[in-house]
Specification:
64 residues; mainly alpha
Length: 64
C-alpha cells in the first residue's frame, strides 16, 4: 500500500504546516515536468525544422 500521503498528512497536521505545507510536496507524480519536457522538445524540433526550411529556401533563391 502507498503510505506516503497519509504519513505526510499526519506530519503536516502535527507540525501545524511547518513540514509539507504546500500541496506540491504531497504529490508524487512526475507528470507535469515530463509533459513540460515533451512540449519543449516538440517546440525545439519545430523551430529547428522551420529554420532549416527557411535556410534551404534562401539557398535555392540565391542560386537562381
Amino acid at each position: 500500500p502507498d503510505l506516503l500521503p497519509g504519513v505526510q498528512k499526519k506530519i503536516r497536521e502535527r507540525s501545524r504546516g511547518r513540514y509539507y505545507r504546500d500541496r506540491f510536496a504531497e504529490r508524487g507524480k512526475l507528470a507535469t515536468p515530463v509533459l513540460l519536457a515533451v512540449v519543449m522538445a516538440l517546440v525545439l524540433g519545430m523551430a529547428w525544422f522551420g529554420l532549416s526550411y527557411v535556410q534551404l529556401e534562401a539557398e535555392r533563391q540565391s542560386q537562381e
